[in-house]
Specification:
This protein is an alpha/beta fold. 55% of the residues lie in helices and 9% in strands.
């Protein structure tokens, strides 16, 4: 019911810590986006539930867990705004304040610890992060907090210092293939190799790209990278991309950054072909020949420096892409 590919050693170690009453009350699980950090936390909690209850009872607990209705498990994530019809930009301070009600609730199951999952902690703004810090500073007995982070440096230092940190690395090609073929049957070997290289072993991002047709936009972006100045091709591309919702656009930007890293490597590495499985990325030198190293760095820095403001202040995606393309 809570399947997890890879990370077995980390799960086993944390489970043994729990059995020995030595599991840290606050844990940050961090690593690249889309590798299964949430599944990792879910798997650990499900294994703890198995230790507490009979097989018949665990099915009931798992169903509650899957439906986000378990009285002992609280999920904190960005909420859906019915007015704007999209998720809010951040986890709000009110969501964090409501944790007090969860911690003090008498309706919880007495024979089971309480678990708080924050997915992702990167979405905490300064106010909600400072409010959450109080929860970390005054932990309840028999409660465990799991913070999921795609970028550890995005968390304020005081939160990082109070938590044990578990780093999950990108999947091996074997595990990556296993996840993809289980999730989407249409993938062939060449596609799997390409996406493994492009997403740096992230099955979550790959599945999103595949389902959202983001890859088509990425191909158009690659073809337009060497253009100088604003032209009709870039305008048409920016018009199309600007219609993406925020989540789809974030996936597009994530892979775009990976692509820039690959192009940069192709400029400075003589043995780039040995680094990739996909023939398509082995031929990346053709693209990189049109760009200088400084131009690649400038484009990457543009994404890093402006991506957060784009979503926080709801800036124009069309102008954002146009500025990136002509930078």
């Amino acid at each position: 019911m809570f399947n997890l590919v890879g990370f077995n050693d980390q799960i086993e170690r944390l489970l043994n810590n729990y059995k020995n009453n030595n599991l840290h009350t606050s844990i940050i699980v961090y690593g690249p986006k889309g590798i299964g950090k949430r599944q990792f936390v879910n798997k650990l909690i499900s294994e703890i539930i198995k230790l507490k209850f009979s097989k018949t009872s665990t099915t009931h607990h798992f169903n509650l867990f899957l439906n986000n209705s378990h009285p002992n498990i609280k999920l904190i994530e960005r909420e859906y705004d019915k007015k704007t019809k999209k998720k809010s930009n951040n986890i709000t301070i009110d969501q964090i304040r409501n944790l007090k009600k969860f911690n003090s609730s008498s309706s919880s199951i007495q024979d089971l610890d309480k678990f708080i999952i924050v997915d992702s902690a990167d979405d905490l703004n300064l106010n909600s992060a400072n409010s959450f810090l109080k929860t970390l500073e005054e932990p309840n007995s028999n409660s465990f907090i799991f913070l999921i982070s795609h970028q550890l440096s995005s968390l304020i230092p005081t939160i990082r210092s109070r938590c044990q940190k578990i780093k999950l690395k990108s999947h091996s090609y074997k595990d990556f293939t296993k996840i993809l073929t289980f999730s989407i049957e249409k993938f062939n070997d060449n596609e799997i190799k390409f996406f493994y290289d492009l997403t740096q072993g992230s099955p979550g991002i790959t599945i999103s790209l595949f389902k959202d047709d983001v890859f088509d936009y990425l191909n158009q972006t690659i073809k337009s990278l060497h253009n100088k100045g604003l032209n009709s091709e870039i305008i048409d591309l920016s018009n199309s991309i600007s219609k993406m919702d925020d989540e789809k656009f974030k996936n597009y930007l994530s892979v775009l950054k990976s692509l820039l890293i690959i192009i940069h490597k192709s400029k400075i590495s003589k043995n780039l072909q040995e680094s990739f499985l996909s023939q398509s990325l082995k031929n990346i030198q053709t693209i990189s020949s049109h760009l200088s190293i400084q131009n690649i760095i400038d484009r990457f820095e543009f994404l890093i420096n402006n991506e957060k403001d784009l979503f926080v202040y709801n800036l124009d995606k069309k102008l954002f892409i146009q500025k990136f393309m002509i930078s």
